[in-house]
Design goal:
Helix content: 25-40%
Number of strands: 4
Distance between the termini: 29 Å
Structural class: mainly alpha
CATH architecture of the largest domain: 2-Layer Sandwich
Bound molecules: iron/sulfur cluster
Largest sheet: 2 strands, antiparallel
Strand content: 5-15%
CATH topology of the largest domain: Alpha-Beta Plaits
Number of domains: 2
Strand order of the largest sheet: 1-4
Shape: globular
Order of helices and strands: HHHHHEHEEHE
CATH class of the largest domain: Alpha Beta
């Protein structure tokens, strides 16, 4: 288990995620699709020079933390490349609306970084599978807990994302 003994807090979710990943020696904009989408849509601070860090400096934080572990070795990398993507596609979690709880507020639609939730006033939000990057920001945003998840399953093998 990764234990850094650090507490991170911030006012911009994108900047906070990117800093956390940077501490783990990971480039969030390069390796995490939904963070890249959020950045491209201008929904958060992503340029390192625009992120103000208070308290411990980034370089000092990096000195006392361990790196995120990635698949090591050629075989692991090759197997992970072939099967990892298939497993990811089948087991990625997709949002599912619970219409009994949904209040038709539309907040989920506004937060979706790739605009795949269609919403019209007084109607339930419509979730489109195509293009969904499975970030589950919609689920986090729904204060009524009206969004559950389910595995994409075998159909995920045909997804491009
Ligand atoms: S945020 Fe929740 S309650 Fe509001 S429309 Fe979306 S699913 Fe429904
Ligand atoms: S998980 Fe929700 S917020 Fe994320 S891309 Fe899919 S529909 Fe949009």
């Amino acid at each position: 288990m990764l234990r850094w003994n650090l507490i991170l807090a911030g006012t911009d979710e994108l900047a906070l995620d990117l800093v956390a990943l940077e501490i783990g020696k990971f480039n969030g904009l390069k390796h995490v699709p939904h963070l890249k989408s959020i950045f491209n849509r201008g929904l958060g601070i992503g340029n390192p020079e625009d992120i103000e860090i208070i308290g411990m400096s980034l370089s000092d934080a990096k000195k006392i933390t361990t790196k995120f572990k990635t698949p090591a070795g050629f075989m692991t990398g090759a197997i992970s490349c072939i099967t990892g993507n298939m497993v990811y596609k089948m087991y990625k979690k997709m949002p599912v609306l619970n219409p009994k709880i949904c209040k038709k507020c539309g907040n989920c639609s506004q937060i979706c970084p790739v605009n795949v939730i269609k919403f019209e006033k007084k109607h339930y939000p419509l979730f489109t599978v195509k293009g969904c990057i499975s970030c589950l920001c919609c689920m986090e945003m729904c204060t009524y807990n009206a969004i559950n998840t389910k595995y994409r399953g075998a159909m995920g093998l045909f997804d491009k994302t």
